[in-house]
Hints:
Number of strands: 0
Mean pLDDT: 75
Radius of gyration: 28 Å
Structural class: mainly alpha
Shape: flat
Strand content: under 5%
Order of helices and strands: HHH
Amino acid sequence: MLLLKYLLMIAGFALFGSAAALVAYDVYLAAQLRHLLAGEGSGRVAGEAVAAPAAQAEACAPLLCARRPARNPALLRRRHGIRRPKTLRVAGERAA
């Protein structure tokens, strides 16, 4: 029983440590993003575009040009001229 207690305590401390590490990593990523967006550390003016290598631009071109289909069902129905199905009447219900 004592072994189980200490095993669970160690597991709890490990979980708290991993949660703290995840929070620290998120803060680190947020700081890096802030530096990149501000243009610090790269010797560039803030907001200046970075030229991508030609191979990378060619590899990304199909992904950037591909159109995503609309996922909104109402827009799909309107675009293709599909009307909403009529609601089914329950037996014994009169038409209004």
